[in-house]
Amino acid sequence: MATGDARWIELRTKSLDVGGAFSFLQTPGAGGIDIFVGTTRLWTGAKKTVHLEYDCYRPMALKEIARLADAASEHWPVKRMCIHHRLGVVPLAEASILIGVSTPHRKEAFEACRFLIDMLKRQVPIWKRERYADGTKEWIGGPEPPQVTS
User: Fold this and answer.
1) pLDDT value, residue 47
2) pTM for this one?
3) Are 92 and 40 in contact, with CB atoms under 8 Å apart?
4) Could you tell me the sign of the dihedral formed by the alpha carbons of 81, 121, 149, 88, in that order?
5) Which of 72, 85, 101, 111 has the fewest CB atoms within 10 Å around its CB?
6) Which pLDDT does position 89 carry in this prediction?
7) Cα–Cα distance, 103 to 56 (Å, whole number)
């Protein structure tokens, strides 16, 4: 679950628990909590999405997420943070990623949360495959998509 008392990093196939994350982030030293939740949207450009599928290289993904958490903690006065990413199939309107940060003030919470989501999307080996209503599918995101033909 957590890597130390101040962090909760998780890759999971089940639904993400926003309420549980909020409870974890609450601490007397934090006056600002920022939570970003990314969900599966119906439309990607002009294509209708059926669902998303996420895959990763788990050891490297966890290592990179921990590295990003370290970088955020070095730059902002983070009291607690959670970084949860869903793997497998994520249906429409369900959460695929949850990033939460608590800091003494809101500005730092916003900045650290934004940093974490932006860098995670760029650097962590988690890949997203969009499945569209027209039967097509497409790998998107992550450093390099896996070489899969199915």
Assistant:
1) 95
2) 0.90
3) yes
4) positive
5) 111
6) 98
7) 29
- Residue 69, SS3 per DSSP: helix
| Three state DSSP letters for 23-68 | HHHCCCCCCEEEEEEEECCCEECCEEEEEEEEEECHHHHHHHHHHH
- The span from the CA of 29 to the CA of 104, in Å, is 6
Q: Determine the residue type at 126.
A: I
Check whether 150 has a pLDDT greater than 70.
no
Written as six digits, the tokens of 51 are: 């669902």
> Other C-beta atoms within 10 Å of 140: how many?
11
On whether the CB atoms of residues 131 and 44 are closer than 8 A, the answer is: no
> Which tokens belong to 135?
């039967």
Unique residue bearing structure tokens 């958490």: 69
143 pLDDT band (50/70/90 cuts)?
A: low
